[in-house]
Amino acid sequence: MQRHSLAKSVKLALTLGAVSTTLLGFQVAAQEEGAVVEKISVTGSRIKRTDMETAQPVLLITAEDMSRTGLTSIGEIMKEIATNGASLGLQTNNGNTAGNMTVDLRDCGSNRTLVLVNGRRWVTELSGEVDLTTIPLAAIEQVEVLKDGASSIYGTDAICGVVNISTKKDFQGAELSAYVGEYDEGDGRKESYSFSVGTSNDKGSVLFAANYTKQEQVMGADREISSVPIFGLPANVSAAGGRASPTTPYGQFKATVGDVTGSYTLTPGKTGCIPGQECTSDRVADFHIYDANTDGYNFAPVNYLLQPQESRSLYAQGHYELADNVRATAEAVYVNRTSEAQLAAQPLGGLAISADHVYNPFDQDIIGGSFRPIVAPRAFAADSTTWRFGAALEGEFELASREFHWDVGYGFAENKYVQLKNGFFNKTNFANALGASFIDVNGVARCGTADDVVAGCVPFNVFGGPDGVTAEMLDYVTVAPRNLAQSKMHNYTANIGTELFELPAGPVAAVVGYEYRRESGFTNPDPLTVAGQVLGDNAATPTQGGFSLEEFYGEMVIPVLADQPFAESLELSLSTRYSDYSNFGDTTNSSYKLSYRPIEELLIRASYGEGFRAPSIQELYQGQNDSRPSATDPCSIASVPYTQNADVRSRCASAGVATDFQQKDPQFRAKIGGNPELGPEEATTTVLGFVYSPHFVENMGISVDWYNIEVENFIGTRTAQYIANACYVTGIQSYCDQIQRDFSGSLNGNPGEISELLSLTQNFVGGLEREGVDINVDYRFSTEVGDFRVNWDTAIMLYMGDVGQPNRGDVNTDGDISEGNLVGKLAPGQSGGGSRNKTKSNLSLSWKYDDWSASVSAQYVSSLTENCANIVTASTRLGMPELADLCSDKGHTQDNFAFKPGTTEVVVTKDELAPENKLGSVVYFDMQVGWASPWDSQFTLGVRNLFDKEPPYAYSAFANTYDPSYRLPGRYAYVSMTQRF
């Protein structure tokens, strides 16, 4: 076995070391006769051992593996491992205005994956997620991904896996690196530069690393697939089935002209009202009745497809041997990251325009008007600063003829976040600018009347189209909200371990430990946002809170058999953790692991573990914030429930909704917020697998692991669609009480629209379940023409859905109708990605010969299906039946399930039309070539997406026609150079 420089470390705070190499790098090393084999710490355990393979599957990603990806951030690298689900990244624009990058093992949710750095907890966002942009790649030596629940070892959040990022150790010399890459469209340029310097001797070591990375943007307009809301449909369809916005730069104004009442919009190409001139009724001829099939606004081109970002980081670490049996370690990290998200200009709805407004040609009061000032797109500039400091003492001592290993550690982490928003408007000033106004004697437009002028106010022209808005108008109404957030963590740990006694099969080893942690944080939205004075923005109230906890834990390894016939080894591992939280109480979680080696070349492993996740600060204490989820109003005459169910029509009528009501806004106005009464999630994880290293094939390793994860008491919120359906379709009054409607038309000129829907965080009795299989084959061999390595890493998801694996149509433990197994189905409208692929697989072939190296890799993601009823609906409304052929199976039918109105009895509608579209499987090929020069330089040239594979069309995806779980369209080439000194 291999030696390891941290062999004498036995602690949670610095759990690093060699790991089971069964998944990304399967390393087999012969032990020389008579060599001293040091015990090591493995990820997922605090007990030192000589065997790198344990009862838990671990994926090892080395620095060399990371280099072969051609990626420059740990967030990008984690996004492409086979076990990662849909997670936030820079391709998430609308739902990621903070510019974060996360990892989501098993597609359980990013806050159910624990991220460690050098075995220590990293600072989390208030949501409980770790932003991977705060971890500098230049300092990373390797990444270990524990694909098993580990709450008994690490505590909360380790439900669906653990990512342990190890930084460089014993670095000697200096290294300067430069990287430049760009898409073949000439955009998305990325530059990265790093410098590392370090020294080490018998007493200790010091390392300093600095890194700068700049990512430039890619716009939606720069790719055909993302240049329109739905590729294949006309770009301006806002009617049911389309996705263009009904809030346009030409406006909508409900008015009566002659005897025709309707929602009027300026005809493109017509002048409308001219700034600085009184607009008279003869300009009404420039307007026409809004047509949802042709007059919608194509918002897609001005959105970022890839966010721009810059990051700067400094990392320093050192360790020193204070005595023969005492060592000190310390590390410090500083990361500053700036990024920007950009969305189409703010859609302004619910506008009240005075009949006496200088630019109002209709000469009547207008309520519920809408307008989009496209000269000012929305921008979200984020500035995030992270500090991290950690220090520890570790050592050994002898007592009663036993050697004890101990450590004590302290860690502090802080993240500060500032967001500056542009393209937003002051509600009060905008109301003034749309009130009565006039042209004064100097020919200047003024707000108010000649006898009562509103000082400083500039009348705003919403009747002149894109060219009708001047800089002076914008200056008066524009605001730049500034939001602040901060999270802090203090963490204290202490561990001690020894070998308790000897059994025939070997020593029984144990470790016990203590941890105290305190977390706190807040968000401070801009005062105007809190007051609801930012027109069209999501109102928000502050979040503030924190908690502390004490934990006691222990772990024991019991060797049961060794060197017996059909039992080379049999080992049992037990661990337990007691956690006492200041906010919800205590919980105890244990795990049991068994590893059995019947013969030297085969390891059979099994584990069963209990887990938990404490509610995050955001889930507990978040203030009530507005959100705008996409949903269909069941009371709209265009909805299936309304057209097919008399009970739905009756409930809608009882709520005051008119029989001819048609939803105008495809997004509800929902209010979300925290719940201080939340309890923790509870989980169980079962893993069964084997590792096979056949003697007849040297340097080959095969691993197969089956897993099952169940999470109960799940923390989440009801979707807006669920609440609306529960009220009007199922008839549950408590959900109706959470819905308010606007019957005045002041919201958007369409009386009856849902104006508020309340959806607060809660615990659900049931939860989620994941079941799957991981497979890895790794083979290394040498020839006369070089050394080769083949690695095939595959994750197969067998089940994704409700706990207990109910069939579609069954009632789950929360009393809801289950959707069944969701594997292979695309979740619609997910800004962070909705892919639920059954299979994700990475295959790589690497080669080295003298100073040359090369690699070819393939990333495979399996096919998905999606509901594409929106396409069929649009084709019917447009009178273009050929558009329905965009769906691969427009005639698909399925049984649909619903509760009998007012009861919990499930009724089924047989063979109901449910058009489907298949997203075909995708394979991305990457290639890289490297050369090591005689002057100690490394040059690398690579291409990602070598064959320019396009993502499949996804007609239910968010904002455009491909899901952000797939790679950004285009071929990406890069070159890098590293000079060592």
From TrEMBL:
Annotated Gene Ontology cellular component terms: cell outer membrane
InterPro entries in the cross-refs: Beta-barrel_TonB, Beta-barrel_TonB_sf, Plug_dom, Plug_dom_sf, TonB-dep_rcpt-like
Pfam families listed in its UniProt record: Plug, TonB_dep_Rec_b-barrel
Native organism taxonomy: Bacteria, Pseudomonadati, Pseudomonadota, Gammaproteobacteria, Alteromonadales
Every TonB-dependent receptor-like beta-barrel domain range: 387-946
Organism: Bowmanella pacifica
Keywords annotated in UniProt: Cell outer membrane, Membrane, Receptor, TonB box, Transmembrane, Transmembrane beta strand, Transport
Main location: membrane
Organism domain of life: Bacteria
Residue span of region Disordered: 820-839
Membrane topology, record value: Multi-pass membrane protein
Places the protein is found: Cell outer membrane
Family of the protein in this entry: Belongs to the TonB-dependent receptor family.
Name of protein: TonB-dependent receptor
Domain TonB-dependent receptor plug: 52-162
